Amino acid sequence: MTTPSTFGKIFLNLSWILLIIGLGYVFQQMLEHKENPNQNPVSLSTTEFTEVVLTRNQHHHYVANGYINNVPVTFLVDTGATNVSIGADLAERIGLERGYQGIAYTANGTTTTYATTLQSLHIGDIHFKDVRASITMGMQGDEVLLGMSALKQVELIHKNGQLTVRQFH
C-alpha cells in the first residue's frame, strides 16, 4: 500500500526528472538557434522582387534552412564555392544522381566530386530551378554549401550582420 509520504516522494522525483528533461530541451533549442538563427526564413515579396534577410550565427556565418527537391536541408552561404556542394550521404538521401566525375580543390585539400543538377532549391520564397551542383566525397555532415551556381541568380546585400538575398522577378 502506498502511503501519502511515499506518494509525495514519487511525485517529487518525477517532477525533478520532468524539470531536467524540460531544461535540456530548452537549452538544446537555444544552441540550435545560435548555430542557425534562420531556421524559418521569412520572405518579403513585392511586385519587383522577393527577398529573405538572414542573420549571421555566432560564428559569423550565414546558415539557413531550406529545401532541395522538396527535402529539408540546412544551407551555409559560401560565395567562394563555385557550385552548390552536397555531401555524398545527404545526396544519396535526397536521391541525386551522380554525373561526370571531377576534382575539387578545397581548403582541406583535393577531393572527388560528381556533377549533378538540382531540380529545385529554395530558401523561404526564393526559388531556383535546375541548379548546377556537386556531390562532394568526404564532405561531412548534412550542411549544404550554397555556392555561386545558385547565388549568381540573386542580389546579395551584406550590412550590419545581416545578408539580404534578393531575387528579382
Q: What layout of secondary structure does this protein have?
A:
Elements: H1 4-35, E1 43-45, E2 49-55, E3 63-68, E4 71-77, E5 84-87, H2 88-94, E6 101-106, E7 109-123, E8 126-136, E9 143-146, H3 148-151, E10 155-159, E11 162-168
Parallel strand pairs: 4-9, 5-8
Antiparallel strand pairs: 1-2, 2-11, 3-4, 3-7, 6-7, 7-8, 10-11
Structure overview:
By secondary structure, the protein is an alpha+beta fold. It has 2 domains: 35 residues; 126 residues, Cathepsin D, subunit A, domain 1 (Beta Barrel), CATH 2.40.70.10. 25% of the residues lie in helices and 44% in strands. It contains 3 helices and 11 strands, in the order αβββββαββββαββ. The strands form 2 sheets. Strands 3, 4, 5, 6, 7, 8 and 9 form a 7-stranded mixed β-sheet that branches. The termini are far apart. The relative contact order is 0.18. The mean pLDDT is 88.
How many helix segments? 3
| Total E-strand runs | 11
Q: Which outline best applies?
A: extended
Low-confidence parts: none
The CATH class label of the largest domain is Mainly Beta
The largest sheet is: 7 strands, mixed
Helix proportion range: 25-40%
Straight-line distance between termini? 73 Å
Mean pLDDT, all residues: 88
The helix-and-strand class reads: alpha+beta
Short note summarizing the structure:
The chain is α+β, with helices and mostly antiparallel strands. It has helices at 4-35, 88-94, 148-151, and strands at residues 43-45, 49-55, 63-68, 71-77, 84-87, 101-106, 109-123, 126-136, 143-146, 155-159, 162-168.
